[in-house]
Amino acid sequence: MTESVNHHTFPQKEAITIGRNASRRDPHRPLIMTPAPSPVPSLAEVERLQADLAAARAALSAANADNTRLRRDNRRLTDQVADLSARERGLGVYADPVQQLRHEIWTGWLHALTEHDRDRYPLAGYTLGPDLLPSVQALNDADRARAVQALTDTACGLVWDLPSRNPHRQKPPAAEPVVRADGATAWRCYIQQNTPSARRLVWWRYPDGRIEFAKIALHDDMACR
Question: Are β-strands 168-169 and 211-218 bridged in parallel, bridged antiparallel, or unpaired?
Answer without folding.
Answer: unpaired
